[in-house]
Batch of 3 targets.
Target 1
Amino acid sequence: MLAVGKVKPPYADDVAHYERLLRKQARVDVIEVADDDAIARRIPERAYVSLLDDRGEAYDSEAFARWLEQRRQAGLDVCFVLGGAYGIELERSDHRLSLGPMTLPHQLARVVLLEQLFRAHKILAGEPYHH
């Protein structure tokens, strides 16, 4: 995951919590960059780029898990890109993901995405995920 800006309280504790939980399920690297210009330089060359965008595709948790599994089966590392307070446009993205029609603070969007990644991995492992 590439994100503009350093996560701050009150979101920092939640981000750390989901990063810890995800370590048991999958490898998730969260890379923070200073500004939009640094994003493009940090996207791995062979990554499948999913840009968070309120105009993107929205999924329920089960559909998101299936989408993630399709990427994994194709051997693709997904790089989720989160812009700063004003969003971001990229020259290249393979997919646009919406967390819903409401506008969220960009740091809260990071927490929601990490929670949904954790939930997706629980679903894929056949483990309970409602708690």
Note: The chain has a mean pLDDT of 93.
Target 2
Amino acid sequence: MKKYVFALLAVLILAACAGRSSASVTGMWKLVSYGSASNQAPAVADVDTSIEFKDGQVTGNVGCNGFGGGYEVDGDTITFDQIVSTLMFCEGPVGDQETTTLNALHETATFVLDGDTLTITSADGSSVIVLARK
């Protein structure tokens, strides 16, 4: 009986650990939409977007400029540290997309991970980005 209980506990612990790793923001993402929560705009067509979360660093390009910085996850909160980007001029829909996305990656934001969809909302709620796992 003790062996059965031990085996059952081991399976439950492994399942719990496996569940945690699948709920990670780590990996490569593409931008799906951006804007306010009530007015999402689709990502600009023909612009290859990417955001990668890896080893406490976030890097990517969602318009004209590359960006990067640090991040830390605590529950459903993600705190960004010193996001910097190149400074090429970027206008029109691509510029709007880039500005809104980078605004969501400022200081502390909340996130929801639902399968392969990651939604990040800025601390003040004004910028929301939706990402899909690549």
Note: The first helix runs from residue 2 to 22.
Target 3
Amino acid sequence: MPWNDNANPGPWGSPPPGDDGERKDVPARRPQNGGGRGPRGPGPDLNAGFEELRRRLRDLFGGGGRGVRPGVIVAIAAAAVALWALSGFYVVQPQEEAVVTTFGAYTRSESPGLRYHLPTPIERVEKVPVLSLNRLDLGGGGTADTDIPQESLMLTSDLDIVDLSWTVTWRIADASRYLFSTKNPEDAVKAVAESAMREVVGKTELDSIFGSGRGKVQLQTADLMQRTLDGWGAGITIVEVQIKSVNPPNEVLAAFRDVTSAQQDKDSAVNEADAYRNRVINEAKGTASQITQSAEAYREQAVRTALGDAARFNSIDAEYRKSPQATRERLYLETMERVLANSRKVVIPGGKNGTTAPIVLPPDLFRPRSEPAAPSAPSAPPASAPAPEGQQQAPQP
């Protein structure tokens, strides 16, 4: 069954009256049953909908040769101007700074927030991430596969070749200068970094770069880069220059490793010798200090002993001048007591004709010195006068 057969309307109902020669400006009447959805009636009439839209547009724009209505033109123009004016609103993110240009010339910079500029083409806005850190890698990755010889190979002050790879961290300090001072800021930073590193390395010896002078090279390179960019007015701040790897050229890498190993062995031997020297010196200084202190202590003791003996002798001499006999006897007794302090002998003074009465000695007197002495009875007093000096008598049983 063909779909263009007007005799059989098909599932979508009859065609609009305008299709069979009737008036086209009369809209077709829709079915009263809601468009005939489902099995209860015919479906929506698409041709009638399009015809209705055409009629309304024709009436709006003054159909029938009457021309476009002025109100429509004003409304369209007002809507276009409103949309054009609203296009000037923009948002600046917290890490950004907006640069506004008027007909291509710099006008102002805007801080983060909701901002407005005159719509294009009067003013244009370019947002610059001023708080973001940018990283630039130079010289490759420090290996034979990733090295870029044009960037990494440099000549030192002692005419040696070194293979360097380093990174430069930078950020935008002034957005307007960053956009208008240089044509390609990233290429400018790269060129300045390579030039500054070559200049600093050319004034530094190879051993210093491999040793403790690496930090100095980094600081000098960053300072030289900053001064160069400031002279250009680039609006860029160098945050850090960091050397990732320092190697000799691949052609002499094996020989350089042998030299480095020998240098390390030499440093190890020197360090061991220094440690032994320091230990021996410290021990000798300690021994000398101990001997000196002992000698000083002995000297002090001898001086004080001599002074004490001299004072004692003067005291005894003064007493002797007063009473010679008593002083001689006291000196004799003190000397015998000191001499016979550890002796097992007992000295009993007697008269010229010997003792006249027996003397009873306490039994504890003959016990070993290590045993505690028991309380003893008092000994009998001597029966005769004291014996002359130097005379001894054996104890009586």
Note: The first helix runs from residue 46 to 60.
